[in-house]
Amino acid sequence: MELYKENQLKIYNSLTKSKEDFKPITEGYVGMYVCGPTVYSNAHLGNVRTFMFFDVVYRYLLHLGYKVRYVRNITDAGHLENDADEGEDRISKKARLEQIEPMEVVQMYTVDFHNVLKNYNFLPPSIEPTATGHIVEQIEMIKEIIEKGFAYEVNGSVYFDVLEYNKSSNYGILSGRKVEDLIHNTRALDGQSDKKNPQDFALWKKADDRHIMRWPSPWSDGFPGWHLECSVMSTKYLGESFDIHGGGMDLKFPHHECEIAQSQTCSGVKPVNYWMHTNMLLLNSQKMAKSTGNFILPNEILSGNNTILSKAFSASVVRFFNMQANYRSILDFSGEALEASEKGHSKLMEAVHFLPKIAAGKTSTFDVKNWKKDCYDAMNDDFNTPILISHLFEAVKVINQIKEQKASLTAEDLSELTTTMHAFVFDVLGLMNETTQDNSGKITGVVELLIKLRKEARENKDWALSDQIRDELIALGIQLKDGKEGTTFSIN
Ligand code: AMP
Ligand code: ZN
């Protein structure tokens, strides 16, 4: 029997602000859409926090036996500076500044994003559609919204008429914003804008002369508004109504609010049943963000090549650090926090690796069935990974007691505990078996030996040899990092 039949998952729905029983539209199948990255720069660790959480959601749904279609898009056009309707397209701007083609920018940062996801052990989504690959469908959706009377054209640009929509629907249903307040708070039009009302948002923008990314349309040579691509691609691949839509909290307004308005105008039905939003990753008590320069890149953590941390950390440790926090809470990034996670992570992994060495006993001193239920209950409670981890550590404690011959498990319980630990640690949380990755620690041993020889060479002032060791290791993808507590390394 599929596990989902015996596990009632609850999801905190941002739309209703309550935890609800998860009931997919079609039994056994889940459609999930997550807003993907805008590929105008490297994804930072904050972006990765959000994507990593949805990777765990995807992994758990698969573990429960659902057939999941997971769509995560690539935003490669239409996302303007400051998330607003004015200003330059982020990708166009980067292309102009670097004097390269916009598609070179897109290619470069899409490749980088995929490289990060691979290093951090993400499962690939079922479909990864791009905005530029769906211009035709976006133009069709705009036509439909105009026909229905909820959008208007001015000087080659098309805007969604928020006040008109709000007469029959609720603009603000997700974010809780009131149209009256928006009118009050949005800065008055400066005469430059074509909008009827400042809270209206762009569906199509006429491109000015320096805008390089442009497509022909019935209204002008221009480009689609940022919110449109997600309405189009989610409807195309998941249908007019689908199960889960995710993203970071900062996307609730205006992005997701506008998505609802666009999709609902066309289909007449509620587009998404469960809206899920992750909270922000902070650095120095501020939101990690590219625009403010307050960020660290995921690959910089692996190489140790950054100004924030005193040493490199493995991808599995960073994953563990992320999962130690509830996705709806803010999470503070720091070297100390990562070091604490590293300690916990190695305790967990040591225990998992010790499992095959345990000999079954005649009796069990630990209630494995109950413990297993606790693990599932934690994940069924809105993917509560920190509570799951606390249960995994109950098992770690038992394994360590068995090591000291202070506890025992029957063969059946040992097998159930082993299967459950493996399922949650590797399949669901996506942590990595680093000892198998590096061939049972042999590479670690060899690199540590070379670090020792390099240290001796430096003590003997044999700089040529010490540099040779460092450079040849770099050529093999192994980076040494000298820190206060000695030399550490990372393998790329
Ligand atoms: P972007 O590439 O800017 O469109 O963002 C990609 C995803 O990362 C979105 O879901 C954002 O909400 C999310 N995000 C951006 N900054 C952070 C942060 N500091 N912490 C967590 N998620 C973030
Ligand atoms: Zn989106």
Structure description:
This protein is α/β, with parallel strands linked by helices and 492 residues long. The chain folds into three domains: 3-278, HUPs (Rossmann fold, 3-Layer(aba) Sandwich); 282-428, Isoleucyl-tRNA Synthetase, Domain 1 (Orthogonal Bundle); 434-491, no CATH class. It is 45% helix and 14% strand. It is built from 17 helices and 15 strands. It has a four-stranded parallel beta sheet, sandwiched between helices. Strand 3 (29-34), helix 1 and strand 4 (67-72) form a beta-alpha-beta unit. Helix 2 (90-98) packs across helix 3 (102-119) and helix 11 crosses helix 13 (385-403). Mean pLDDT is 92; it is low at 436-440. It binds adenosine monophosphate and zinc ion (ZN). Zinc ion (ZN) is lined by residues 35, 230, 255.
List the helices and strands and how they pair.
Elements: E1 10-13, E2 18-21, E3 29-34, H1 45-63, E4 67-72, H2 90-98, H3 102-119, H4 135-147, E5 151-154, E6 157-160, H5 162-168, H6 179-185, E7 201-206, E8 222-224, H7 226-238, E9 242-248, H8 252-267, E10 272-278, E11 281-283, E12 286-287, H9 298-303, H10 315-323, E13 331-333, H11 335-354, H12 368-380, H13 385-403, H14 411-428, H15 434-437, H16 442-459, H17 463-475, E14 478-483, E15 486-491
The chain binds adenosine monophosphate and zinc ion (ZN).
